[in-house]
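Following up on my earlier thread - several people asked me to post the actual chain instead of describing it. Fair enough. Here it is, all 634 residues.
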Amino acid sequence: MASGDEDDPIIEEIDVYLAKSLADKLYLFQYPVRPSSMTYDDVNHLSAKIKPKQQRVELEMAIDATSPNYCRSKGEQIALNVDGAAYDETNTYSTKMMDKQTFSSIQATTNTSRYAAAVFHKGELHITPLTGILQMRPSFSYLDKADSKTREREAANEGGDSSQDEAEEEAKAITVRFSRPESEQARQRRIQSYEFLQKKQAEEPWIHLQYHGVKDGRSEHERQYLFCQSADASENSELVKTPKEYLSMLMPPLAEEKVVKPVGPSNVLSMAQLRTLPLVDQVKTLMKNVKVIQFANLMGLLASGTDSTSVLRCIQQVALLVQGNWVVKSDVLYPKNTCSPHSGVPAEVLCRGRDFVMWRFTLERSLMRKEAAAVIKLPPEDVKDFLEQVAAPRVNRGWEFLLPTDEDFIRKHPDVAHRQQMLWVGIQTRVCCLEPEQISGEQRLKAAQERAQKNQAALQKDLDARRAGGAARIKQEAVSDREDEPMDTSCPIPNGSVNGYPGAASPSSGHANSNGGGRTEASSQELQDFVLKTFRKHFVVTLNEFKRLLNLHLASMPVGRSVFPLRLRPHADGRHRAPPLQTDPGACEYPPTMVLPRCSRRMRPREASLPLQTNSRRAPGGAGRTSISSLAAL
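Reply from S.P.:
Thanks for posting it. Predicted structure:
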């Protein structure tokens, strides 16, 4: 050859034959604990057994106890620990000495399709595919047997041999439970569990074999099967190929290897699987998982040698710059035609609310949750989800942005930072319309009054319909702890009032002649003041709580003063009486009178202010008369 460009000459042609006689029975044994110069060919093999499905082999080999390198005392001690002092046919060491050892196999590789055993004979190469490659290592299962013997002896010493004295066990109730249907993921996890593998290994029985040495006649006979039994080319069609087929075998086309995904949660992606994706998908997947990250940390998660310029181009498609850090875009987390997993709010509304939260973090590092909730008007679960993605709660400071400001990135990439700032200006114009309108308390009160005036006609119509529907319903309550306590309905009121309201002789009874106009206005104003004061102190209050506060307020007021206006009319006997309740006209001769019950000392303020009791007695003319006692009714 004058130069390297010339073709290599053919020196020799060798015929290759494929032997199939031992194709599914040929194993390669390796002994990694010994050098190749120290083989076990001359060692006495006592027994051999195999589990073909698991490709598991065990060999028992004799130990030369007469060797000067053998410690006799140690061998006797091991045999004593394993078998004990008593002799038994099942003893591991029948000579009371460790005179043998067991070699157990493990698979060196699970895919042996590329391995074969070859024999070169008379210018012919005969190859046989390997079924398995096994590494034989010493087994120390006898130590486990020694430990079990020790535990058995300790249990026998503690409990004694009481098996003959044991009484028959009592019958116990057994609870029958039915297992629920197993999912595919649960089945895969169970199959790959250590307990399942141990069970499967124990189910396959051992097949005992007979060992033949290297120089044995049977071994020589079996070695003949390594040669192809027929020289006919038609039976070796696997090796008879056209030049094109042979070239494709030497240089096969690239094929995507199917990667078996490990069993795990559905939302977890391994780094090995991640790096098989395109760069833009890698960045998008990482951002969806981390939510917020510094650019330097993102480069560390990607494969070494990845171009930072390409990463910058990709990350701007799926993330926005906040405080020098990259935060995943809202439309990536909440795609179109999706909704919130917490409240079912559409994705468009979620994106607008989350963009407002991120925009606020571009202005300051902390944000109060109430401020954000008042603006975006989303359920609390969604607002909390937005904040937990990019911020952490701080005492007395609200929610602080999760990562420190990355000044280094802003300094190295000013063009990217400026471009992101312009994007935020555009987002600001979209989210600023969400700013809350500042409305004072007086404006809210005025708006409520206007709404009440608009609805007054409908409310009056509803009230008239209720009045026409039937008689008034009066709640029955006891006025004191003693239900049978008599009521004084005839004695005059010492304070000159009827039911706590000024009567005709009272100095403040001028409202009776003027139809209660001035008193009504004063009472209404006092009631309004109480309501405003209550709701300024308690922004949210239940109806029962409001009743309780009003009862306490009524109990603390001076005698003869009330927030409820009551219009009295003069009667024939000179006393001012309340307007008659809507009752059956034929059952009442005189209009009901408002009288004050005699309060007991044991009455609570609420009991003294809210008694409603109806007593019926016969009038002189035979008609029924109704007396109603009341201080206030809600």
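The chain has three domains: 12-63+99-152+186-253, 271-434, 472-629. That should answer part of your original question.
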